[in-house]
Every structure is written in structure tokens, then in C-alpha cells.
Amino acid sequence: MTYINTGSITAIGIIFSVLAIISFAIRASGWRRYPRNLEIDDILIIPAALLTIAAGVAMVIGAQLHILGNHSVPAITRTEQDQLGKLEYAFWMGHVIDVGLIKLALLFLFRRIFKGTAYRTTFDYANWTLIILVSLWTIVFFIFEIFACDRNADASWSTLYSLRHICMDTFAMQTGFAVFCWAMDMAILIEPICMVIPLRMCFREKLQVCLVFCCSIFAVIAGFLRMIVWIQIEVQDTTPQYIKILATILPTVDQEGIVSIILFWTYIEMGVGFQADD
């Protein structure tokens, strides 16, 4: 038994979905109460909210089907393998788009707050660089997710053997995605703080403003934990009898247990990231 079980999977699926609905409802009510033209960050947050909620629903359904939060020891059945693989395949594609939209919404929000009257500033260069990097990163990894197994999409969920031998190295791909994602989180955390420091404000006022933007540090922590999960999986691979993920040791054949931990921390990153954005 680990801290990842059907109860915890169901809980985070419900909690972050409800929080996403509440946060979006508050923002929408603000649009009605204080009418203004919708900005780019307002538009981007709409599909981000829908994808965050959809991922939460998928987590709950997976837990109720006992393919998430469960253990496949001594071996996973054909039906469980098929269900788990298809859920994971859809989840990863939605995840790429969701985290990309969340990061872009934050970056465009910063533009709205810090954009000056000057034609080109250091902030413009830094902000647009991050926007371009996040956009390209989202598109590239989304394409990788779709064509990871070339034209044999079913190899993604058929067996672990087909995933590791027919498809590209998806473990390395997900590890690279997690590392780049965390690096972008750090950049997004630092950017507004760098803009606040030069302002003509007393130290206390600067600290108060920085603390508001530092809410995204929770997304950085969640992304860091997910990155560690993927690095551990990539380093250990699936050849040893047991695999250690964070503080949890599982048999390598326990595909449901391993995938459950991965998706648990991935959805926490999505949920926390959306809350930091909203």
C-alpha cells in the first residue's frame, strides 16, 4: 500500500476540478461586474479550465474503474492494460495542451500588468522569448505525443513491451518534457519579481507585491516533484525487479501502481498551476 490509492486519486480529481470551476466562476463574474474587452490571457484560461476539469474527471473515472490507485501484481490483465493505456494516452495529450495554455495565460497576464509605453524594453524581449518558447514547446511535444508510435497508436496501450520497442523512447520524452516544463515554471516565477524590484516602492510594499506573484511557487514545487518522478523512472528503467519513485518502492511489473503515481503528481501540477494562474 502507498499514499496513492483509489481514495487519494478520487480526492484530487474532485478537489482540483471543483477549485477550477470556482476559480473560473469568480473570474467570469468579474468580467460581468467590470465589463472590458477580453484579453489574450482571459481567452486562454477558458480551454485551460475545461482541460483541467476534464483531466480531473478522467482521474475519478480511472479510480472507480480500479485502473488508477490500484496495483497490478503479479501481472496486469489484458483488459486493464487496454483501459489504462488508452486513459494515459488521452491524458498526456490533454496535459501538454493544458500546461501550455496555463503558462501562456500567465505570460500574457504579465504583459497586461507590466507592459510600458516604450516601444521595446527588456521586459518585452524576455516576455516574448518565453511566450515563443512555451508555444513551440507545447506544439512540439503535442506532436510527439500523437506520433510517438508512428502510425501504430495502439502500440501505446497494447503492452509495455510494444511501448518500449515499437514506439520512440517515451520515458526520455516525458522526462525532457518535465525538465523543460519546470524550467519554464522557474522563469515565469522570476519574471514578475524582476519587474517589481526596480519600482519606486518601499521594501515592505515590494515584498507584499512579490508575495502575490510568489503564489506560483507552489506550481514550481509540484512541477519539481513530477520532474523527479520522471528522472527516477528514466534512470532506473523497467529492467530491475523493483523501482523507487520518490519514497515509494514498487515491483516493476506493477504498471497500475507506477502509472498512478505518475498521473497523481502530474494532475497536482496541473491543478496547482491553474490555481496559481487564476
Automatic annotation (TrEMBL):
Signal peptide: none annotated. Residues 36-254 form the Rhodopsin domain. GO terms for cellular component: membrane. It is a multi-pass membrane protein. The keyword Protein transport does not apply. The keyword Metal-binding does not apply. It is found in: Membrane. InterPro entries: Rhodopsin_dom_fungi, SAT4-like. The chain crosses the membrane at residues 6-31, 43-69, 89-110, 130-148, 177-197, 209-231. Keywords: Membrane, Transmembrane, Transmembrane helix. Belongs to the SAT4 family. This is Rhodopsin domain-containing protein. It comes from Aspergillus sclerotioniger CBS 115572.
